[in-house]
Structures are given as structure tokens and as C-alpha cells.
Amino acid sequence: MMKAMVLEGVCDLRQNQTPLSAVEMPDPLPGRGEVLLQVTACGVCHTELDEIEGRTPPPVFPIIPGHQIVGRVLACGPGAQQHKVGDRLGVAWIHSACGQCQHCRRGDENLCPQFVATGRDVHGGYARLTTVPQRFALPIPEVFTDIQAAPFLCAGAIGYRSLRLTGLQNGQRLGLTGFGASGHLVLKLVRYRYPDAPVYVFARNPNEREFARELGAVWAGDTGDRPPESLDCIIDTTPAWKPVVEALKNLKAGGRLVINAIRKEAFDKKELLRIDYPDHLWMEKEIKSVANVARRDVTEFLQIAAEIPFLPEVQEYSLEQANTALLELKKGKIRGAKVLNLA
Q1: Could you give the count of Cα atoms lying within 13 Å of 286 in the half-sphere of its Cβ?
Q2: Three-class SS string for 94-135?
Q3: Domains of the chain
Q4: How far apart are CA 205 and CA 215, in angstroms?
Q5: pLDDT tens, 134-166?
Q6: Are 174 and 166 in contact (CB under 8 A)?
Q7: How many CA atoms lie less than 13 Å away from 234 in the CB half-sphere?
Q8: Closest by alpha carbon to 49, among 338, 343, 341, 342?
């Protein structure tokens, strides 16, 4: 029997409920083509809040959340020969895809109609053990500890995909609205890869703004503040709609807003009515969404981060403290990434 933190059903975190229950459940067994991992670390992501509060609910309950998993192979199922016992591997939001559709064939598995999400559609990493198809278990560079590697598997990879979708060139101005785990990793990446591209950060929390300045942001303001210059591109990582409206005002002609959020909270119709075509969308401004991650996003980002190298800012919690980490995330108590240490 293994220990796990499970979500029994949708709940409202505004009521300070503790959404996850500590349970013991039978050890999972690897199926054909799967490996069994002993989980040593698992990142805590805002998408877990979306699952808990019903914006992207699991298809069945109970479910073990968690999709930034680092672990070691304990056993290989029938036909699983790609990895061996003892290998250190990572599991991201992408648990599997069909491998046959046009999206999968060109490497865009994130768009596959049969995309399966770790910790939502199947059990994830808030547990001592987990299973994953061998093709979607990814090697972790040796330069990182388990705790350091965990945030790279989602916050880093989805941030990397978002940055790629902006089309940012060195010397252009990038905005980040929202400054959690993904935002702080994007800022670090930009400082190394695009040294002449200044980064501007929008965040409600003054502590997050100060943290952004510490990491090298040239300017940090509240969500509704105007930066000193208009921006070439902006990445939105917030769960709300207001930052989207405000970000559009801050784009220059031909600028692009990339929305990095699996779901948005219910919007206030008054906010959308504030959209003014000349101010927000005129001059060929673009809006593009980000959908999930593909394996290549994860592997490319891990390689880049290892070559630089750079590390995430991390707050550690035990498995039993998962509810604490989630409630702090809901309340905006964020400095970098939150990671469960199961070693």
C-alpha cells in the first residue's frame, strides 16, 4: 500500500477547504509499455487549482493530482525496454497521446484529440508511486537535483513554449503579466538567451513585483499600470480576464499577446465591455493561446536549462503538506515554484 493525496471532488478554495485527503491505496502496477516510478519530487501547479475548483475537472474521482513528477524506475511492464530500473525520469502534463494523428506526426502532441493529462485524466505524482507510458517518461539532466528539476516539467516547459509562440527577438520588449513559477523561469531564460530584450512584469502582489526586480526585470508594476514603453509581446499566466484586457493596451503595433492558461476564471461581463477596438486591438495586434505541452517542449527546455545552467527558486513541502502548498498558491503566496519533496 502506498501513501497518496487524493482529490475526492470539486470544492471551493475560497472557503479555505482542504481539498485533498491523505489515503493509503494499492501500489500501481505497470501495464504494457509502461514503467513504474518511485516519486521523489512533484511540483505544485496552478492547474491543480483549476482541477480542484472545477474549471478543468477530472473525468472521474477520486484522482491523484500532480504533473511535474521526478522519480526513479522501480519496474518495467511487458514490452517496456526503453528505460531500465534505477533510471531517473520526469513526467509532465502530457501523459500520453495517440501518436498517429496529424498533430502527433508533426510533433504537436499537445493538440492531439486523444491527449491524456497527468494528474487529471490519470493518477499523478502526489503519491509515492506512479506509472507512465515509457515514451512519455523523459530523462532528467544530471546537473539538476530532483527538487530543482520538478518545476521545469511544466512551469518551465509551458513557459518555454509560450516564449517561442511570442516570436520574441533579441532587443524586443517582453511583458509578463502574472509572476508565479512559469513567469520567473521565463524571465531567467530571457536574460540568458536574449540579453538585450528587457522584461517588464505586471503583478498585483508587491512581493512578486520586488521578486521580479531581483531577478532582473527592468520594470514591475500593478496589473493596470502602464509601462514606460509599449511592448512587442506579452505572456499572460493569470487565471483572470482583467490582465488580458490590460495587456492589450500595452502592446505596440503588430504586438502579440500569448495566453498561457489552461482555463480562465468566470469573467465579469463589465470587464469585456471595456474592450475598446482602437486602444486594444487596432494596428494588427494578435492574441494566441497555449494548449498543453508536447514532449519536445520539455526535452528542449531541460537541455537549454542544463546548458546555461540556471535553477528555479523553490519552496519545499512534504507530501502531507500538499493542501498547505495549494492554499498558499490560491492566496497568492508565491515566490518561484512550490515542490513536494517525497525523497
Answers
A1: 12
A2: EEECCCCCHHHHCCCHHHCCCCEEECCCECCCCECEEEEEHH
A3: 2-154+293-341 (3.90.180.10), 157-289 (3.40.50.720)
A4: 16
A5: 999 999 999 999 999 999 999 999 999 999 999
A6: yes
A7: 34
A8: 338
